Structure formats: structure tokens, C-alpha cells
Amino acid sequence: MTVSETSAHWGTYRVEVSADGRRILAATPYDDDPDASPAIGNVADAHDAPSRVRRPAVRRSWLENGPGADASRGRPGDAFVEVDWDTALELTARELERVRGVHGDSAVFGGSYGWGSAGRFHHAQSQLHRFLNLTGGYTRSVNSYSRGASIVLLPHLVGRAADLDLRARPVPWHEIEEHTDLLVTFGGLRRSNTWVVPGGHDRHIASGRARRMAGSTHVVSLSALRDDAFHDVGAEWIGVMPGTDTAVLLALIHVLDAEGLADEGFLSRFTTGAERIRRQVRGDDDGVPKTPEWAESISRTPAAAIRDLARRMAAGRTLVNVAFSLQRGEHGEHAVHAALALAAFLGQIGLPGGGFAHGYGSMGDYGVGVVGAKLPVFDQGVNPVDAFIPCARISDLLLHPGEAYAYDGRTLRYPSIALAYWAGGNPFHHHQDLGRLRAAIARLETFIVHETHWTATAKHADIVLPATSTLERDDVAAGAGDRRLRAVRAAATPVGEARDEFRILSGLADRLGRGEAFHEGRDAGAWLRHLYERWREAPQSPPAPPFDEFWEEGGAPLPQDPYPDAVFSRFRADPAAHPLETPSGRIELHSDVIAGFGLVEVPGHPVWTERTQWWGAPDAATFDIHLLCNQPSHRLHSQHDMGAASRSTKVAGREPLRLHPDDAAARGIRAGDVVRVRSPRGSLLAGAVLTHDVLPGAAQMSTGAWFDPSRPDIADCIAGNVNVLTHDVGTTPLSQGSSGAHVLVAVERWDGEVPRVAAYDPPAFAPHAAIAQ
Ligand SMILES: Nc1nc2c(c(=O)[nH]1)N[C@H]1C(S)=C(S)[C@@H](COP(=O)(O)OP(=O)(O)OC[C@H]3O[C@@H](n4cnc5c(=O)[nH]c(N)nc54)[C@H](O)[C@@H]3O)O[C@H]1N2
Ligand SMILES: Nc1nc2c(c(=O)[nH]1)N[C@H]1C(S)=C(S)[C@@H](COP(=O)(O)OP(=O)(O)OC[C@H]3O[C@@H](n4cnc5c(=O)[nH]c(N)nc54)[C@H](O)[C@@H]3O)O[C@H]1N2
Ligand SMILES: [Mo]
Questions:
Q1: pTM of the model
Q2: Fold of 152-368
Q3: Which residues form the Molybdopterin oxidoreductase N-terminal domain (predicted)?
């Protein structure tokens, strides 16, 4: 048995490996990690699970019939033929060549969104993008599912630099603890979300900081879930129905305005457009004053609680936080915009512990107070193709080639895609309306996927190439604020014939005559050394030992520089010397630029407009439960859903649905029952959990159960993947972000057959004789 240290987005931990290097015997947290992620408990099972991709495989009908649109992708009965690496690489290289030749380079979609590995070198997307760039380019994707709306909106309101600072050096935890009287957080402060950090943390300090802070700072959490925040340390819960925060935020501003509590000095000196918001909340535009009573009729948040909260917010140092989730819904831009406006009316932006934050409770590195160090990077080169999509428009891209759509004030056209190439992401986890995604994927001529596991995405692919996991290769890793750049040594031997992305793509590049340009004559070990030494020698890098010493030592210290100043503090101290990168140099509470785009949904200032996914919407007559689809506590997205920790959360063998006991009683549902959940787009089976921690009329299911379409006669997914229910629309035509955070559903007890979950089974394999060569 050997013990190694390894790193993933959910943390740094130790694995005990069997003597033959094939099995993970145990995975245990790193010594001084104060709040390690339970996702570590999935690793041993996931490593050599039956669902690992062991050999390259090609879909039989693609082999037999050649490339082309095919609705049988991923359907029951679809079979794969395992082939050797040479055959797989040759098929892949020739197909890429054919598609580029026939349809042009923009017909290759290589966006490949996803949270694959945490390493700096074996990062699937970086590897794939470099390879695609060197072989002709590809249609790419921009932005993220995480902050798809904010990433476009906030630069218009506060400028690009301040938007980056809001993420990289927000008001830090220690400042909140010291200065903030009241932290008002929309979407809570979810402990489980702070277990995840891009690159992975070796010490998870966020939840400890939050608890300590809650000792001196009063926390008010507005959400449909009580346990979104630390109710055990006294956080106060105010219920708000999903997707209605904008109404509550406008009402809070209404109270400040009506009661003379707005900071007029701040508004006139540091912002533009406050008058437009005032007109909006007074009802001058539409005759509807945005009073707390008005907001209650939309959000079900008691008017008295809103009025009282506004007064409390004005009475001391207040920080307004919005979780990422608030903007991951229809018209999600407005919630973020309204929260920024509320903070501006309070006048504390740029003061210690006051103002606006966007990420507490969403990511573990948010506000840790240490500047993220420069890290080694693997160069992706330049993409000769300029076509792109906002990442959450993937189905639209494939279903509507040539069609025009709006994005950030521009009119773009979806290019025509023949081949999609995915490595390190799982669109059948992350995208909304999986039925629609299947129809979109069916249109491809060819779908190529690198995967560690037979995910639903792999099962919908034509060529599946087995990738090694982080445990099976050497790398370096660190998350923002970490104390060390870690040497992550391979702990186990690769499962089956799995190869590193670098080796797979080197093989393809060689076959396409671009090998030297891609690998530059180095193998993976030489690249790691090269990246490290280049980083070490760069002028901005911290002092670090030579590679061999670093590797031997297991890491190199990273600087722990405190934020030089928090976002907006210099702007506040001297707005003339430090203007924001906006047209006015100020915070734009109304943006003329956005208004100039002429979008009805986004007039330039925040407004409440009715949504299709809202308890007051017409659909709610039938789909009367508003389901929150949040991040899973015991795994990262869909990763390792077959592992012990993730399995421990399942109810009746599937993803749990948490709902209020009154809603359950009205439907004859008892704890532990199997329930069927439906939306106009699809249906799933889930296991019922009854709790008073969720508002009546709302419910909650986490994302990430593996899509299981094996029994369409019973439900579109029998394992409980919420994305069969969600609707696939952009937040607004401004940013076209993902709307996956919530969806209207109907819930009923399921008395029929309860089928076995087949999601973790490998696909059917056809005999080798089927290879048409
Ligand atoms: N309804 C709804 N949907 C959502 C969300 C929501 O709130 N609601 N949240 C969204 C958000 S914020 C995000 S970020 C996305 C996340 O979506 P994804 O990042 O796509 O989800 P993951 O499950 O992390 O997918 C990563 C995949 O990479 C594979 N993998 C791991 N290591 C490697 C490797 O080294 N090489 C290769 N080739 N593959 C590897 C894993 O097996 C896994 O299948 O989901 C989004 N989807
Ligand atoms: N354990 C774990 N941690 C993770 C991840 C994971 O997969 N697992 N994923 C990581 C990633 S990639 C991201 S982007 C972040 C995402 O960070 P977030 O987007 O903040 O995370 P969510 O869990 O989707 O949402 C947090 C809470 O917001 C509430 N909420 C949802 N919609 C609304 C709304 O309209 N109004 C209000 N007031 N509340 C609402 C829900 O009750 C939910 O529990 O999480 C990261 N952290
Ligand atoms: Mo995300």
C-alpha cells in the first residue's frame, strides 16, 4: 500500500492505494483542512467503477453507416464497438480532416465547457483548445454557467476592472467580521458550496470564517430554503419564492427612498441613473409604486419583514451579497442589478465591510483575503476562427444554424456545426432541457468525447476516448489564495487503456501533421518541468525552488499577500483619480449603453417583469411547485455520482426531492416515497424528503444525478437529473446566460414500478467483428 496526496476542485486529500496500484483503498482529508468536502468519500468507488471508460469505443451505427445526423444516439439499444488506440486515433484524425475540408473550420464546435480536472497541465479544455487551434481553429464558447448573466451585465455597470475585483478582491471575511453590522445575503451562504474552489483548496476556511463572522455580524438570509445559511449559529431566515428577489430588492429601495434613508450624497457623487430607479420604485413610469406590499404579492415575503429589513439596513454598516444562483434564472440580470442599486442607495460601497458582494456562499475562495498568485499556464495558442456562442446556447446553436440572435448589444448568427468535440465537461449534466439537448446532439454528423466515465454525454458520442483521471498522472495544482503550489503525483495506474489528454491529442496532432507544433517534442513529464521552470523564472513569480526540489518536496510556497484594498475602496476615496471603467466613470444604476441596445427585457435599470417560471405564472396552475435546482453537497456537479458519499444522500435509490410537509400531505406523499416530478419538458423519479426548511410551494433537488433515460415508459430520467425538467432559455438577450436555477414542476406520488437505475452501467458493447473496415 502507498499513500499519496492528490488534488481536485473539491480539495486536497490523501489516497491509500493497493500495492498493485489498481485500487484506491481509502481517501482521507488533508491534515489541517478544517472543513474537508465529503466528496472525497466518492473517490475510492469512482476510480475503478464499472462505469470507467476502459478502451476507446466507437458507436456501432456511426461505424457502419458513417457520420451523419442520427436520432439513435444515446437511445436504448445503441451499442459501441471497442477498438484499439491506433484505430480510434486514425478514425478521429480522418474525421476531423473530413469535416474541416467539407464544412470549414468553424463547423467544429470545441467549446467543451466543464469542470474536468484541477491540474494546471492536464486540464482537458486547455489541451483540447491548443490542439484545435493548431489544426485550424474551432467555434468556441464564452462565459460560464456559473455567472453567465453577471459576466456580461456587471462590466456595463461598474466597468471591467471592478467586475474582476468583485470576484478577486471583494470585501474580505475578516473585514465583514470586524466592520459589518448586517450581512444581508440573497441565496444564503451555503457551506457545501464553499467546499469547491477552481483548482482546489488544501484548507477550506470559508465556512469557519462565516461561522466566526456570524458571532459578531447579524446575518439575514433571503431564500426559499432555511438551510441555505447557518441557522444553527443564529442566521435569520426570510422566505422569498425563487426568482422574485428583484421585487423584494426594489421594495427595499422604495422604503429607503420613501423614508428619507437613501444616501443622497453617495448617489450624486458616485453613481448615475439613481433618478431612473427612483421613478421606477415610486411608480412614476407605470403607476405601480414598488411598495413592500407590492413585493409581497410577488415574492410571498411578508411586507412587514421587508420594511423592517430596509430600516435595519440603513441603521448600520451593511453588506448586500447575492449568490450566483440569483442570476441563473430568467431575467437573472435584474436581481444582480437591483442588489447593486440597493447597496448604492445605502451609500456604503467602498467602505470597510459595506456595500455589495457577489459570491459569498457560491465559491470557497471568495473573500479569503489573499491575492490569488500567478500560476503556471499551458499555452492554448490563437484560434483562427472567430465564431463563438455564450456557452448556455449550445442546443440553440445545433438546432438553429444560420439563425440570428442577440448578445450584448450585437446581433450574432449561429454557425453551422457538423462536429462537436468535448473533453472535461458533461453537457448531459450541465445543460437545461435534456430532451432538447438530445434532439440537438442528434443533428451532429459526429460527436467526439474524452471521458473518464461512461456519462450520458459519452453514451451519446460517436467516438469515446478513455481519459486518465487526476489520480493517474503527475500535475501541479493550486486554488486562489492557497498556501502552496502542489506537486500532484500520480497515485494509481491508469484504469484500462486510459491515456492523458496530452498523449491522446499528441497522437492526433501527429496524424494531422501538427505533432511538433502541439507537443514541441516534449512528453508530459518534460512539459510539467518546462511549465514549472517558465513560471519560476517569470518576473512576477514568487521565489520557488528548482523543479526537482519542488517535486521532491511536494510543493512550493505561494505568497500570502493580503488584498491591497477591497473593490471600490480607491474609487470611493478619490473618484476623480480612480474612475470606474464605465462611460460616466461612476456606478451606472441606469446604463445608457444597455438601454441603447433596445431590449424590452433590459431597459438599462432593474425592473421586475413576470417570468414563465414563477408561482404567479400561467403554467403554475398545473405546475404548482417551484423547484430549486441547486449544487449538490456531496459531489462536484455530476462527478462521481456512483461513489459512496453521493450514494449516501440518495432516497429510494435516487436523487432526493425536499418539500414542505403540507405540500407532501396534500399529495399523499410520505417521507421516503418515490415521487414523479414533471414539467412541460420532461419527467423524473425522485425520493421524497419532508422538511420545514423549505417554503410551502417551493421544493429543492440538487443537480448532478446521472441522466438515466433507460425507462422512457416511466419517466424521462429515472435517477433524478433535474435538467430533464428545466427550461432552455437565455436569461435575457443581453447575456444569454443559463436559466437552470429553478423551474415550475408538478409532484405526485409514484405507485408504479420502481425501476433499477441503469445510469452507471457501461453501454452495450458489440463484437469487434462489426468494425466496417
Ligand atoms: N439546472 C441546473 N443546471 C446547472 C446548474 C444549476 O445550478 N442548475 N449549474 C451549472 C453550473 S454553475 C456549472 S459550472 C455546470 C457544471 O457542468 P460540468 O462542469 O459539465 O459538470 P461536471 O459533472 O463537473 O463535468 C465534468 C466532466 O469531466 C469529466 N472529467 C473529469 N476529469 C477529466 C479529465 O481529466 N479528462 C476528461 N476528458 N474528462 C474528465 C468528469 O467525468 C465529468 O463528466 O453545471 C451547470 N448546470
Ligand atoms: N459541493 C459543491 N459545491 C459547489 C459546486 C458543486 O457542484 N458541489 N459547484 C460550484 C460551482 S461551479 C458554482 S458556479 C457554485 C454555484 O454557486 P450558487 O449559484 O450560489 O449555488 P446554488 O447551490 O445553485 O445556489 C445557492 C442557493 O441559492 C438559492 N437560490 C436559488 N435561486 C434563488 C433565487 O432566485 N432567489 C434566492 N433568494 N435564492 C435562490 C437556492 O436555495 C440555493 O441553495 O457552486 C460551487 N460549489
Ligand atoms: Mo459553475
A1: 0.97
A2: Dimethylsulfoxide Reductase; domain 2 (3.40.228)
A3: 6-46
